[in-house]
Structure formats: C-alpha cells, structure tokens
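Much of what follows relies on a compact textual record of a protein's fold. Each token is a code from a learned vocabulary of local backbone shapes. The record below shows the convention in full.
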Amino acid sequence: MARYVVDVMPKPEILDPQGKAVLGALPRLGFAGVTDVRQGKRFELEIEGDATDEALAEVQKMAGTLLSNPVIEDFAVHVESQA
C-alpha cells in the first residue's frame, strides 16, 4: 500500500484570514519573530498497490477536482511512504 500526501495552500494573492488570526495570536502567547502565517490543509491517501506514476497522476486528479479549489488554492502531491 502506498501513502500519498496532498498539501493544499491558499494562492499567494488570496487573503488568508485564518493565517492572520494565528499571526495575531502568537505574540499574545509569547511567541516572537513570526512575520507571516498561511494556513492550509493536508490530506493523506492510502492507495492499494505500489506507488506508480499512474497512481500519482490519479491522486493529482483527485487533488485538482475535489481536494482543492484551483481558483484560490495551489496543491502539491508527493508519495510519503510505501508499506
């Protein structure tokens, strides 16, 4: 079984209110020096069989059609491990 990871982040030009809220809270909690925060999503998918180029392409298709909104988000897919 292969595990694929999809990381989804807002595009740089898109406002990120959740990231800004975290950025504002960090100094109040005693954490200094953080200049920006962007919040995204991480999906881990386990696919039957070995990691193949075909399976990677299928996961990329999933990421582009369901796991992300391509209008406002970018995504990256990689193979994390193979059991």
